[in-house]
Structures are given as C-alpha cells and as structure tokens.
Amino acid sequence: MDQPKQPMTPDAIRALVERVTRAPGYTSSVGTRVESAEAGHVVMSLARNDNLLQINGFFHGGVIAGLADHAGGGAVTTAMPSGRFAVTVNLNVSFLAPAKGDRLIARARAIQVGSTIGVAHVEVASVADGVEKPCAVAIVTLRGVDLPAK
Predict the structure, then answer these.
(1) Which fold has domain 10-146?
(2) 66 CB-near residues (< 8 Å, 6+ apart)
(3) Is 1 exposed, middle or buried (0-12, 13-18, 19+ CB in 10 A)?
C-alpha cells in the first residue's frame, strides 16, 4: 500500500523551485531568480537585459508572460505533494502598463490546488529605483505531473 505523500519542508520547496528555474532552457537562459518560495506562494524576479526588451526599451510582453507563467507554476507546484510539479494548460495575462524598470518581480499565489489541476494568481510589477509599478496580472491554470528524475 502506498504511503501518503508528506508536504514539503520550506527548504525542499525552495530547492525544487530553484531546480526547475536552473534547468537548461528559457527560464535559466533569461536569468530568472527565485526571491522566495513557500507552500502556495512564490516570488521571482528578472533583471533588465537588452535581449528581453521591445524596440521601445520596455520589457517585451512575452517575457512578462513567461515570468508570470513560471511564478504561477512554482506557486502551484509548492502546494502539491512531493514528487509532483505543475505544467501550464492555460495562461491569461492582462497587461496594465509598460514595464520600463530595471527588473520585473512576479508574486504568485496558488488559489486552488486539486489532485490534477491547480490555479494561480500572479501580479507582476516593474521596479525602477526601488519603486514598484504594476505592469501585468495573470491567471495560470496548471496540471500536476510527476517530477522527472534528476
């Protein structure tokens, strides 16, 4: 008989989110950082880089959406049993203002986590001179799958 899976410790949560963020691919190549991670809540940031900007010097909408997607996935993953992680099935982003700061910060909160589907709410802000200005909000719907072996 299977043992019930235990909730992850705070250290295990951060390690999991950082593992996914550092894996080869988009998230690590753009420089996404984990600022904090706890069960159901993740904060991630992304520093300004000329390769992430539109022609007018603002962060590209796809970059903002990518950060919101990853932060939402982290928030839902941290609320799942150990050995599971969340992959996106739907991403809805509303852009509020141009993101023209020195970095982006995304704060994600799992608002529903079931046995197969989870939903996160994400607020993204552009940070300039230490002042945050909201630039996007997102709702991310995700499916729980088994975490691949290391």
Answers:
(1) Thiol Ester Dehydrase; Chain A (3.10.129)
(2) 26, 27, 30
(3) exposed
**pLDDT for 7-62, tens place per residue?**
566 677 667 777 776 777 788 788 899 999 899 999 999 999 999 999 999 999 99
Torsion sign across C-alpha atoms 2, 18, 61, 26: negative
Buried b (16+ CB within 10 A) or exposed e, 57-85: ebbeeebbbbbbbbbbbbbbbbbbeeebb
User: What's the CA gap between 10 and 77, in Å, rounded?
Assistant: 13
Tell me how far the alpha carbon of residue 14 is from its chain's centroid: 12
**Is 0.85 topped by the overall pTM?**
yes
